[in-house]
Amino acid sequence: MSECLNYMAWGAKGWGDEFFFAFFMTLKISFIAYVISFGMGLVFALFKLSNSRGLRGVAGCYTTVVRALPEMLMILILYFAVAGMAEKAMVSMGLVGSDFQFSPFWTAVIALAFVSGAFMTEVIRAGLLAVPRGGIEAAWAIGMSGPQVFTRVVMPQMMRHALSGLGNLWLGITKDSAIVSILGAFGELLQTGYRAAAATKEYGFFYGLTALFFLLITILSLVALYWMEKRLNRGQA
Amino acid sequence: MNEFALNIINCLPDLLAATPLTLLLTLVAGVTGLVMGTFLALARLSGQPLLSWPAAAFMFVVRGTPLLVQLYLIYYGLGQYMGHSWVRHSFLWPYMRQGLTFALFAYSMNQAAYNAEVLRGAIQSISKGQIEAAEAIGMSGFQILWRVRLPLAFGNCLPVLTSDLIILLKSTALASTVTILELMGTARVIQRQSLQVYEPLIACGLVYFVVVVTLTSIMRPLEKRLTRFRKG
Amino acid sequence: MKNIVRILISFALVLSAMAPVVSADQIRLGLSPEPYMPFTQINQAGVWEGFEADLSHALCEEMGLECKISQTAWEGLIPSLTAGKIDFIVGAFSITDERRKVVDFSHSYYNAITVLVGMKSDNTQITDRKSEGGDGMIVDVASLKGKIIGYQSGTIQASYAEKYLKKIEAKAYPAADTALADMTAGRIDYVLMDLQPVETFLASNEGGDYEVKHKVPTSVVLGEGIGYAVRKGDKDSLDKIDAALTALKEDGRLDALVEKWFFTVK
User: Fold this and answer.
1) Quick one: which H or E segment has residue B131?
2) What residues in C contact B195, CB-CB < 8 Å?
3) Among the partner residues A68, A197, A211, nearest to B208 by beta-carbon distance
4) Confidence at residue B212, expressed as pLDDT on a 0 to 100 scale
5) CB atoms A71 and B66 under 8 Å
6) Which chain C residues are Cβ-neighbours of B95 within 8 angstroms?
7) Contact between chains at C206 and A102 (C-beta distance less than 8 A)
8) Which partner from A84, A162, A185, C216 sits 20 to 30 angstroms from A144, CA to CA?
9) Residue C36 phi/psi, 5° resolution?
């Protein structure tokens, strides 16, 4: 038992500090990926609801293909593809200089976001459809411009309807972030657990510990979601 | 461009040969998970704290941690433990030796927890009227369970269960990290042998896409058939 | 709609600003983070240790450049190199003809020996035989009948097993230490790998019940020793590395490092 305490020591001799930083790294990766995937989900949901068949087709392709493939496969493909093709594309479009590279961190985050984005599209689309038309028409009637209607009327109501779906996607992304440990070292939880277990041969202990840290993230997230739901539903009958 | 397509096609035979293993994993873990999940849901909903608390804890932990972590924990953690214990010298060893056993166990466990949560909700949402009617005509507790509660619950949540099965199919890709040579694992082996980066992955994606779409299109008529006597 | 487009573009610009710019005096080394002593490992303090770590520092000092170590997954090493994310691949990377098709190699700086490691209590006699194709002596797969071997995928040992040991059950692992873990768990009987990490394992707590069962005869498949890999056509970096390696060989620093880290070969 005392061995276990030794393993968890802070500093050079133990893995305690590694796990501490890894915990926050997992949160960081998950959060940034979530925000990007929300952006993507919003864009593609609007595509799906738009009048243009082309946009609807693109969005439909995206969601169908990405949701039919394993996350691990998508993340692997995107990791190598973003690294190669997206960089070349951005250079040739003149957006960035020729020395440009996505850092491994951003490549993994974008890959994660891209996968989640497909599911996010569906959640946001359902949320948008659930917003009552009456309110939107009233906003148009009093002369609000397009973007104003969107940000002041549609979005707040959409968030309320989509909250449970968005919450589930957050929980999903925090768990999917473990998959990026396959791509290399980002100092996130599973990778740290792997290194610790491999160095000390205490596989059960360290993988169990990794699971506990993920569980902690889940618990904290559930508390936060509960609080957010209470807040968003204020004033609702 | 042609070379690219040719490379992809060259990967297909090996990949198609690995597809049965993926389907086997899905089927075994799916069925085992469903059966275990039913027991879990019933335990969770039983009035006995001795049953419902462990069940709730199990479901919470398994659903709150990533599948990959569970896979590693069982494959390496439990594996090391078994390798150093009495199991090594027992008659079970040829089965316990195989990595596949551990992977199946991890997937079944994971699937059971998610299925149990879905079933729990479905069982709880059965209208009281049905139960009261069954009690009124003198059915025993077990009969009510077997003939009323479970069929209604399954009918309620069948679409969710089938989509959970598809999710299981996709998650079998993670087994490639613990030496199981299913579809994804084979694709990565081809990657390393041929030093090609994209072609094996894209070929693998094509196979997964076809399998998932086929499975989904089989599921829908199946769902309709199984719930054909339900009203509303 | 205009606003959204503006937001997206500024987003992309912010993203691009966050990517690190590579300075000219920096060399990025790609290293696989799995522990592979005595070649490389990252210890608890996050510091790289081992033969490769020391050699890389010595080389960078010799070349007068700053070395930045970038952790990359084993199978991501070659793709990262060709994509330009790293400049060198380091870490017991063997020179083989297969790999020569996609990367260029420096001079070899160490000859790795491949062995089979297994339980002491295992009395199987493993023998060699002449190969049909005139490749010299190879391990006789018939002497391994009924056994299960493991190896790290993407390595020269993987190529060897796939070419000569097809008749027995073999498992590929993402890293050498996972193969060793499965051996101690009893899932496989032997691991086919480099001698040096095997010696490290045998000297550890876990390795007490194990020993080297057989030394695999040298073969073309097993490569020509380990070297630094650079992008194909990157003659500049290649010349720098070769010059530095030669300097280290000549003044004995390379031998000193070999002496320091490696167990003497029996």
Assistant:
1) helix B128-136
2) 78, 98-99, 101-102
3) A68
4) 93
5) no
6) none
7) no
8) A162
9) -145, 55
Is the model's pLDDT at C21 over the cut of 50?
Answer: no
For the record, the structure tokens of C118 come out as 């297994």
Chain B residues with CB under 8 Å of A209 CB are none
pLDDT at C144 over 60: yes
Asked whether the bond before C38 is cis by omega within 30 degrees of 0, the reply is yes
Residues 6+ apart with CB under 8 A from B127: none
Identity at C164, one-letter amino acid code: Y
Q: Which residues pair with C94 in a beta bridge?
A: C226
The two three-digit tokens of residue A138, written as one number: 């009233």
Could B201 and A68 be called an inter-chain contact, meaning their C-beta atoms sit closer than 8 Å? no
Contact A224, A234 (CB under 8 A): no
Q: What are phi and psi of C202, to 5 degrees?
A: -65, -30
Structure tokens at A24: 């926050």
| pLDDT greater than 70 at residue B155 | yes
Predicted-complex ipTM score: 0.86
Average pLDDT, chain C: 78
Partner residue opposite C185 with nearest CB, options B80, B192, B197: B80
CA B63 to mean position of chain CA atoms = 13
How many helices and strands, by DSSP H and E, does chain A display? 11, 0
Is residue C266 predicted with pLDDT exceeding 50? no
Partners of residue C41 on adjacent β-strands? C49
CB contact under 8 Å between C173 and B177, yes or no, is no
Which residues of chain A register pLDDT less than 70? 1-13, 82-92, 94-102, 184-185, 236-237
Distance CA A155, CA A35 (A): 15
pLDDT band at C19 (very low <50, low <70, confident <90, very high): very low
One-letter identity of residue B164: D
| Spatial CB neighbours of C126, under 8 Å, sequence gap ≥ 6 | C116, C139, C140, C143, C144, C213, C214
Q: What b/e readout covers A25-58, taking b as 16+ CB neighbours within 10 angstroms?
A: bbbbbbebbbebbbbbbbbbbbbbeeeeeebeee
